[in-house]
Amino acid sequence: MRGFFEPNSVAVIGVSESPDNLARRIVQNLHEFEYDGIIYLVGARGGRAFGRRIYKSVSDIPDQVDLAVVLIPARYVPDVIEECGQKGIRRAIIETAGFSELGKEGKELEMRLSEAAARYDMRFIGPNCIGVINRANGLAVPFPGLKNVFGRGGISIISQSGGVGLDYLNMLASENLGLARFASIGNKLDVDECDLLEFLIADEQTSIICMYLESISDGRRLMRLARSTRKPILLHKSNTGKLARDIAQSHTAALSEDDAVVSAALEQVGIARFYASNTLLNFLKVLPLPPLRGNRLAVLSRSGGHAVICADACERHGFSLVRFPREFLEEIEKHFRAKVIRLTNPLDLGDLFDYDVYDRIVERTFSLEDVDGMVFLHTYVSAVEREASRAFLKRLEEHSFKAGKPVAACVSTDSEEMSVLRRTLPHPVFTTPEDAVAALALKRDYRHEVLEEPRVEQAGLDIDGIREILSRCEAENRPVLLDEGLRVLELAGIPVARWRVAESPDEAAVHAEELGGQVAMKLIASEVSHKT
Amino acid sequence: MRGFFEPNSVAVIGVSESPDNLARRIVQNLHEFEYDGIIYLVGARGGRAFGRRIYKSVSDIPDQVDLAVVLIPARYVPDVIEECGQKGIRRAIIETAGFSELGKEGKELEMRLSEAAARYDMRFIGPNCIGVINRANGLAVPFPGLKNVFGRGGISIISQSGGVGLDYLNMLASENLGLARFASIGNKLDVDECDLLEFLIADEQTSIICMYLESISDGRRLMRLARSTRKPILLHKSNTGKLARDIAQSHTAALSEDDAVVSAALEQVGIARFYASNTLLNFLKVLPLPPLRGNRLAVLSRSGGHAVICADACERHGFSLVRFPREFLEEIEKHFRAKVIRLTNPLDLGDLFDYDVYDRIVERTFSLEDVDGMVFLHTYVSAVEREASRAFLKRLEEHSFKAGKPVAACVSTDSEEMSVLRRTLPHPVFTTPEDAVAALALKRDYRHEVLEEPRVEQAGLDIDGIREILSRCEAENRPVLLDEGLRVLELAGIPVARWRVAESPDEAAVHAEELGGQVAMKLIASEVSHKT
């Protein structure tokens, strides 16, 4: 999968001189995101665009091309993929729509497409998708024109739908949540969510994986992959009911499953499942915070009303509010002499307008052993307290990390200030106590441990050992023999049936006895490919 | 209550020369909102501010003052109210905190405050509040500094909490929902939510009433008022559980009620009850749209993924998706020749990028008899389609009103464009299909008819008749007699028991017979106050 995200050169196929041409936007996105590889333009009518030549065919490109991005009418796609194969291109992203989601005719096109790709060992994403983004190297090939407003970060997205994928991108941008990789997979005729998930699990830039799916291609594999990683996997799965079935079929050729079965299976392997993007977003916001190790919250509030609303939300979500110890309250009273502070939990900061005092109260509250996490309800008028508030909200997160306990900051201010906060704060903020508490509840309830088998690479992937075997075969110019193949699997940490090499029938008989049970025999010889 | 919103002059009491002085912000707000009356400043230390003299006492003000806004330390409030009374001020807003919400001492202060006000027949809002805003005349007296970003409209707000009240104001501003009146009522020691509700029900500028309450002062009156009006009343009632009880008590001295009883009672009289501000906001957004007369929706979508999510949401909220008639689909297919359109409901507009065609499809869809309402899911990249999209979204609402059927527009675009849309569109937009469908479900399920007695003013409030009786009493310098009082009630549309005036015992006997049943007799004489 790495080839889809880190190509040294990209051919955008379907570019024309017409200003309405959709494929031009792909090129614009590559420019906007400052792709660090080489871009080639291809279009049947040739010409020029963006100061570049438009080649009439990929075969005209004088250099090697790692990735083809295809946006041409569906009927031409199989032939163009054939040409790509001949050119030696082994990765393609096919954004064109009009395949199996449109019925029988499209289905046939898909078969021809698959055959062409198979002939050249080509892997492809799509068709009917908007492709990938790699924030690290600026590879951004969706055809909708984008602005590179995405911070770098550890969140990667796999979306079956291009439109919903864009939604998730917009969400990340507006909440200043950092992006690593993005892939829209459409009809997933070849590459599916599991292929990408496997890549993202191993990917060092990805720490959180978000998926939007309308159908699950291979449930067993999805579960095995989820079990193998500690990285949180958040899944927004739609197409749950009767009404969605038809439209999902025609959208990304997705078949719906029994939703209750899906939910139960996902829960088993620690995938967090969502029914709407905004609840998923709530969870995304609190995921990077320190863990919530218990159920006991402290609520600090500048507004009594929000404190009341928050206390109700805590009760609805099964949290308890710590009873602050008397010494703690007395200390606050003594040091800060704030008359209007209410010494309960929620702690109403009332008319106390001193941010340094807030700092000390936050620090002391986090230091209480009984406190597992905090909600800070901050209300301010930007005209008056802008600078002090922004600085305090930054420090709030520092306190949280120092204490190793999470804080959900809920801010109530005018919408202009709110959007500044969202763009500039290093951590996300909530706008209602309900959302803040719901997010902490998701964090509390989320359990995702590595289950059963450890991750392949943790079991000791012996790259050097594998390399040695493969180089030997290459040097001797012969295929990998059966015993070598089995050994490669073992070195990769993949369990295989017990096996021995016998040089003679007698030796075979001895081994068979040692192995016990039924034993299969296979011939090893460089002249004979393995066949049972 | 009108006196609180339409005073010809306001005295802001508690102003000093110090730049940190909170009461100065009240004056700034009056300037910012361009209050059309006269402003007087009052502060114990005198001086100057905003090019005005600060009077040391209200008694020093040479002119009549209609409304006093008080923000001074709690212990001085009763005496200042006494001075206001002597000055002839009959309305006060007391923003100072530190009364019964702080316990026994504050409770005593409240008693002294109430006594002082009662001596002068003064009505007051608060204490412990942020006062009122009247968008029409620019009266804006909250002490947090505000920007006048509020459009004029029919939404009025009553909030027990100042902070939550500000939240609601921010919500209206950011969604471009128009404001009529705002009142934060705090400890509601004198004026309570029912007093204001009664005013807003009769208020010609108010068409929708939103309330945030932590306690209900007079449940019977609230229900009676709700029954008397067709105006929608939306109530966000918090303080529902054990955890909130203490903090609500210390916040606005609110006692919590049995929440299930509250809910049942509210439902009975057609008050829409909410547990969080964002669901209330969803409802606010669809309230002004044409009514949803049935359960059958049409979903039009530019993004297949959003269509799938929306279909699921429709199912969860109990909507059915109209099966589009074949003629309709054929017509669309013939006229628009859109290859990638999916001819189902949701109707996937796919790669059809023609806004004029959207217009015609929307119009035709609304014209289908089976369609009760519409969800339009619009996805666009602002860099490319900004102008066309904004114009189309405006037309979408026009189509809705022309058809007399509601449309919930759900827009997915970058956050910058989104905030422009929110500020400039005449109607609100949603950001997720879930919210759009949930809002339509609220609209469908909301039933608020005038129950039992008709509204007082609809029954024909005869102001002139009442005035005539009262002027006669005043001219003759005597109290209102019993028969006059009963007549006043009748002229006000308030039902009274049947009554007659008898000049002699014989006449009384005749009347008693006519009236039938048990009859009570009362003495009418200007020397004797009415007593049974």
Task: Explain what the structure shows.
2 copies of one chain form a homodimer. Chain A is α/β, with parallel strands linked by helices and 532 residues long. The first copy, chain A, has 4 domains: 1-124, Rossmann fold (3-Layer(aba) Sandwich), CATH 3.40.50; 149-288, Succinyl-CoA synthetase domains (Rossmann fold, 3-Layer(aba) Sandwich); 291-445, Rossmann fold (3-Layer(aba) Sandwich), CATH 3.40.50.261; 463-515, no CATH class. The first copy, chain A, contains 19 helices and 19 strands. Chain A has helices at residues 2-5, 23-32, 77-87, 104-119, 162-174, 193-202, 219-227, 242-252, 259-268, 277-286, 304-316, 326-336, 355-367, 382-403, 415-424, 433-445, 463-475, 482-491, 505-515, and strands at 9-13, 38-42, 48-49, 52-55, 67-70, 91-94, 123-125, 131-134, 139-140, 152-159, 179-184, 208-213, 233-237, 272-274, 296-301, 320-321, 347-348, 373-379, 407-412. In chain A, the strands form 3 sheets. A 7-stranded mixed sheet of chain A has the order 3-4-2-1-5-6-7, with helices on both faces. In chain A, helix 7 (219-227) links the parallel strand 12 and strand 13 (233-237). The longest helix of chain A has 22 residues, at 382-403. The two termini of chain A are 31 Å apart. The interface between A and B is large, with 81 and 81 residues.
